[in-house]
Structures are given as C-alpha cells and as structure tokens.
Amino acid sequence: MFRLTSTKLRTRIPLLQQQQQQLRRSQSTSSSQQTLIEKIVQKYAYQQPANKRIRSGDFIVLKPEHVMTHDNTSPVINKFKSIGASKIDNPRQPVFTIDHDVQNKSPENLKKYSRIEAFAHLQDVDFFPPGRGIGHQIMVEEGYAFPGSLMVASDSHSNMYGGIGCVGTPVVRTDAAAIWATQRTWWQVPEIVKVELKGQLPLGVTGKDIIVGLCGNFNQDEVLNTAIEFVGEGVKMLSIDERLAIANMTTEWGALAGVFPIDKKLIEWYYDLLAKREALAEIKTHSGPPPSHPRLSLERIKALGRIGEELRADEDAYYSKTLTLDLSTLVPQVSGPNSVKLSTPLPELEAREIAIQKAYLVSCVNSRLPDLAAAAEVMKGKRVADGVDFYIAAASSVVQMEAERAGIWATLVAAGAKTLPAGCGPCIGLGVGLLEKGEVGISATNRNYKGRMGHPLAQAYLASPAVVAASAVAGKICGPNASSVPSDPSNFKPQIKIVEHPKPTRISSPSKADAQSTEPLLPNFPAVFGGPLVFAPADNINTDGIYPGKYTYQDDITPEQQAEVVMENYDRSFAQTVRDLYPSSSTETLPLPNDKNLTARAHRSRLTGNGVVLVVGRNFGTGSSREQAATALRNAGIPLVIAASFGEIFKRNAINNGLVCLESRELVRFLETQFAGQAKDGSTVATHWNLSLDARSGKLELFDPQHSSLKEPAVFQLQPIGNSVQEIFVAGGLEGWVKERI
Fold first, then answer.
1. Which one of 35, 47, 476, 604 is least enclosed by Cβ atoms within 10 Å?
2. Where would I find the Aconitase A/isopropylmalate dehydratase small subunit swivel domain in this sequence (predicted)?
3. Rounded-to-integer distance, Cα 481 and Cα 742, Å
C-alpha cells in the first residue's frame, strides 16, 4: 500500500491545471455528425429521445432485429425459464440454428436437439435443423441479417454480418434470454475505428489475406473491443464473399463488430442472390412460380440504394483512430502456427518446406461457393498428396447444392477430399478429422488457437482456400502460383499506418439539436457515486486475479466470503484495504438487504452510490467468463469501477449484476503520473483521496478531504450513466430487470 506525499503532488499541479484548461476549452465544441455504425445503432436504440444522437460510448437499451442461438440454445432455454419467463415476447425475433456438434449422433445429443426443436415449435420460432448449415451463413442467405439492420447472436462470429452492411455483434447467454423475454437488452456502443483499404489487391491475393495480414501486422490490441468501419477505394474491389470473410475474422482481431458500406456492389449481389434463390425454389417445386421469400424480396432490395445513402457516414464523423493498409503491397499471408497475431508472407513459409498432415476447407469464414470454386480450380485433375487428409464442408446445404450443380463438389471429391456435413465441425474441435499430437494442419478457418482443432501439441496454420488446396496437393505449405509473388523479401512487408485522433469532449449543457450531455435519472438511482479512491495500476488484470479460480466452483461460498478473497491473486491486502476504507459499521443505520446474494456493504452501495471506487488500468477483467469476478467486487462494497478499458465479457457480467463500469483513459493516465515510481504491478494504491461522479453529467472530481496534498479538485469528463444501466442497477441486475418486464 502506498501513500501520496504532498511534496510530490505540488510538482505536478501545473500539469493538472493544464489538463483542466484543456477540458474547459474542449467543452465548448460539439458535433452532430455520426458514423455508419452510430446511424444504424440509432435505429435500434429502444425509446431513445428523438433529439439525442447515439455516440460511441453511450449505454443504450438495444432492441435488435434478430437474435441467433445455435447449439447453445439449450442453456439459453434454461436461463430463460430460470428468470421466470415462459413465452418468447416476439417469436419472429429469435432464430435457432443447429450447427456446432452436428456429427455427434449420440442419443444424448440427439435428445438435446429434439428438445430445442420442440421448444421452437412451441414458441413458433424459426428453426434450422442439423445439416442445414452454419448459423451465420443461414442468417445471411435467408435474409435475417440485412444491410442497414442490427443483429446479435450468442456467438463471437456475429461480426460476419458486417460484410453486408449489417451491424452484427455478440451477446452472452443471459442477454439472449433477456431478448427472448423482452425483445431487448443493454449495450454500450463501442469505440469506433476506421480501417482504410487503399489500392488494389495483386493477382492471387484474397480477402482472407487481407484480414490475416491485418491481424498479424496490427497485433498490439489496436482494435480490441472496438467497432470497425471499412472504407477506401480498396473496398470497392472486394467481392461480398471476401467482405464477409474479413468481417468474420474481425472477431479474431479483437473487435466487437466490423462493418462494410452499403454500396452498388452489395446491391448487385442481392439481386444475384434473389435470382439464385428463385432458381433453387423452382427446382424444389418443379412446377409453377416459386413461393415468395419472407425476407428476400425485390421491393426490399430496391430500397437498398436509398438506405445506403441515408446510412453513409457523415464527413466529419469522429473515429478514435484510422488504420491504413495498402493492398497493393500485400502478398498471400499465412497465420500461425497457433496464433492469429502471427502472420507470415507465404513465400517465406514456402521456403521452409513445412510438411502437413491435414488440410481443411470448412467454417463460416471461407466455405462459401467462391471459396469451394477457388479450391476446385487448384485441384482440378490433381490428387491430394499421400499422407494428407483434406476435409471439406460447405457453409450451408444451399452452398453445397450450388457447388454440386456447378460440378465444383465433384471436382473436390475426385481429388480426394473427405466430405463433412454443413456445420462447424473441425473448426471448433468437434467430430472427425481433428489434428493429432505432433501433426501440422493448414485450414481456411478463422481460429488456430493451441488445441482448438485437436491436440494441443499439434500446429495449425490459417490461409486462403486456394493456398489450403495447393498445400493439400503438395503435402506442404505452398501457394498455387508461387512464382507470381515478389522474390525480394523486402517486398513482403505490407505498408501500414496508424493515426490516433483526440477524443472530443461532450458539451457542458444540452442543446435542442443534440441533447446528450446529461442523462435523466431514474427514481432510486444514485445521483452521485463516490467514496475513497483505490488505484490498481496494472493492465490486463484477469478474472483469476479478481476472483481466484479455486473458489469458482465452490457453490457454498457466501457473499461475505467472496468479499474477503476479492483481488486475492492480484494483491492479498486488497480486501483489507477496502474494509478499512469502508467498514461494516457504515451500514448499521440502513435496513438489512433482502437479497441473500448481497453483503451489507453492497446493499448500502446500491441504495446510496457510496462505497470504495476502484480505478484500474487497461483491459480489466480479461480471461474467463466467471460472474463471481463481478459479484465479489460488488460484495466488497465497490459500486463503481473505472478502467482505461474492460474485457467485454467482464463488463457485461458486471453490469448484468449491478456493478457500474465506466472508462476513462485520461483519469488512469493522470493517476499513473501522480504515482509514478510508487505504484507497481501487484500492489494497491490507497490514495486517501475521494472521488465523486455526477451520474447525470459524467463529471468526475477528485479531491483531498484534508486539503493537504490535492489543493484543487481534479476534474474529468466521463460518459454519463445511460438509462439502460440505470434500469438494471435499480432492478438489482439483469435477471431482476427481466422479471419486472414479463
């Protein structure tokens, strides 16, 4: 534990005064401009005031167009029932797609699938059975995900919908159950990053190479927990299938969404899609006109031109940073082994003569018709090398039908490919064909984490479909046209650039045009959060550091015991520090909590907003999804955590359990400066300052009650606490919020 001396602080007061002056100057500026993502989110923000424009960082109540669940529909059903719900509020909103463990024919798994199907029929929800395809592909080809709309799914690769100009983002299972019951959940609009694709791709370089190159060259968490908008002349050159692949793997890049514009090429793609669907329908019906599709119609596609114009990003819209990649400098890329953050130019790997034992053309990122066609073109008249197993699975049964009609499927099978049912399969380590100990595999999938596709001592690489096919034929990692890439290694490094943009500060009073500097407060929501400030200066404090794994499955641990072990693996003195600053005696005048999951401290914090305020570094709460990491902090008497940034799943779990989380890089940098040389990783700084946050305006003040070390309050501007978070906090968590609405 460290104490700040007044002498050291006085030397830093000029810096504080400069920051306060900059804050006052910046408060006089505001912009009504919005990004593409902000405009789409605006349409899906539930009961948003008409004059309030959605901004990055806003907490909103989100009412998505659709919510997709797959094999995890079963636990979502259990969660749905456990919160007291019995009827899905809008049966047209959820979509159930069975795609993960479709090779598993065990009685137990088949029974689970039958239960899901029966629940779907009971609730009148659209259900796609095993073998129909991967959920994300179904959402696109069946028109659920559509340009200008917003979709969520209980799966991390929801980002893929951004390839068609649809904001797609993941939610956790509790959120999915809440949406079933109420049609909505909460969401914080992420920081938005612009990714500019300049120039034109060289021959033989694909969209998969773009995203593998982005992951490998911007590999310092530049886009972690952000939403990405792709722009630039290079976008126009990309096919829609390439855009879908790139958007899909923005998940591996660390983003929560990756969205392409709604442009002429996309509209033409939809006309082609409609024609293909009608042709397939005619084959099925054999006579008469095909039945009209419930979502893909000529009228809806004709409207896309207008929608694209309306949803174009404004010229002066704010992006936190701009990342630029010159496509003309890109060569084919291979990711790995066992990491998407490591990408290597294909020519370098070819020179290493890396033998492979397995190759895969499967998954939602690269098993659409153009992907299968690219592989078939490479393999035409050839055979898979001896000692290599090559597995293929179409993204959907529709894709497989098209590939069969075009002769593509037959070409791959004739070359020695082993077929799997449309579904996830080896990509997630399920079914046949997994990597065994010591084997090397190359795959057109999206993840190659250690042990994901088989044995943890195997090596997995990622590449484009053509490179995977060529490698399967050669028995080693190589491309179909090695001679077409530059021979000079200095030409292998793509040209990239990153520019960060200062964040504009919100204005100090609302205007008629954009009343967003304050948030109305709900009854019983604290107007002010405050108390002693504790600073944990480390970055990447994971959930095990917050709540040790050895306690995670001890179901008999009480809320009081949770509070005693909180942050134990980070700093064993943390819990005692919090108890000293916020003793139990401070709660004696309040009624006892009627919630058995709350301590007296947590109860008082919920009623008053008072308690110990924890300020932490970057990516706080990374790691596992254990909810106790949030509830332990809450039960210690911490009502508010402020971080430079959060792990997204931790933030969702925290707010779902009534723990408010806000971000302020400026506050963290200021505290790091004040405590430079004193605070170290693994230590807690008891500042002996107090913190006060105005929940309506987001104005935060640091002050010294003794007026000895901090002569003037330090002022910072944070995001006001949105209505969605207020509702959940007052209800005692998301489950309570849902129960109030069913």
1. 47
2. 597-664
3. 60
